Amino acid sequence: MKIWIDLDNTPHVPFFKPIIRELEKRGHEVVLTARDAFQVCELAERMGLECKRVGHHYGKNRFLKLVGLGWRSAQLFPFLMREKPALSLSHGSRAQLLLSNLMGVPTVMIMDYEHAQTPLLLRPRWEIVPEVMAQERLHCKSRERVRAYNGIKEDVYAPQFKPDAALMKELGLNGKDIIITVRPPANEAHYHNPESEAFFNEFMNRLHATPGVKAVLLPRNKSQEAQIRSGNPEWFTAQKVVIPKRAVDGLNLLWHSDLVVSGGGTMNREAAALGIPVYSIFRGKIGAVDRQLAREGRLVLIEKLSDIHEKITFERRQRDPTKQVAKRQALDEILHHLQEILKKDCTNGIDLPATRRLPKVLVANE
Questions:
Q1: Is the dihedral of CA 272, 268, 301, 239 positive or negative?
Q2: Which domains, ranges and CATH numbers included, belong to the chain?
C-alpha cells in the first residue's frame, strides 16, 4: 500500500526514519512531504529522506496560523491527488489531517501529548499513543480506534544511535568544560506559557555567571535566535554559548552533553531515553508521558524560579560509548498497529504480508 507521511516538525524526521525503513521492508511504498520550518527539510536531507517541500511556518498569531493551515492544506492537495495514498500518517500534521479528512483518506496520528488542540476537522480516524496516555482524553474520533504501545516515541529511534565525536570539534568544544544542551521554549506554540521564558532567562543568566560551563543553544528558528542574540549579547561572549550553524543530530549532541535543560518535549524525552540528566522548563500543561518520566526519576520538572538554582546540578557525566541503549518494543508495536489499520481500513481485501506476532493490542477503552 502507498502511505503518505508528512514531516511537520524537526523531531518527526528521526522518529519516522526507522518506521519508513520497516514499512518499505514489508513491501509498502512511502511518499513524503515536509514543512519548510524548524530545519525539518535540512535534517531530512542529512538523514537521506527524499521529500517534497510544501509550506512553511506562519508565526504565533492565531489568525495567521489558521490562514496558514488552510493554505498549506491547499498546497498539499496536488500531491494528494497525484499520489493517491491509501493512508495518511503523521505525528500531528494539522494540514495533512485537514486535507485527508476532507478527501476521505484514512488518517493515523501518532501522538504523545494529549493537550494539543484538535478541532473536529483535525481529528484523526486512528490514533497511536504511549500506553501511559491510553486512558487520557485523546484526539481520535472514536475511542475504539486508539492503539497504544509500550514506552515513549523516542524509544523508536534511540536504540539505533551511535555517538560521533566529530560533532564536538565542529562546535569548537574541547571537552574540558561541563557541556549543557539548552532548548528555549516554543514561544510561537499555542500552548506557550510566558513563565517558561522567565525560567529560560534565569537559567541562562546562572549559566553565564558559572565558570567552567558552556552551553549549546538550539533555537527553534532564525527569528528566535535573533531575539536571543539581540536581547542578551553577553551570553555569547568568549564562546560561552554556541549555536550550531547547521542542523545537527540531536541524539549525538545530547550524548556528548553532561545535562540538558529544555522548554520542549521531544528533547527532554530523548535525553531520558539515553539516560542523560534532564530538566524541563516547560510550563504548559504537563502531559502524561512527562509525568510518568518524572515519577520514574528520568526527568526533573522545574516548577518555580528557585528550582533553577536548587534542583539543577552542574556535574560532569560519565560517558561510555560502548554502552548501548536498551532496545524496547515501541517500534515493533507501532508497526503492528499500522499493519492492522491497513488491513482493516485500506486494503479492500488485499492480503498484506504479516508482521511478527506481538502481544495483544491494547485498546484505550479496555
A1: positive
A2: 2-158+328-363 (3.40.50.2000), 162-310 (3.40.50.2000)
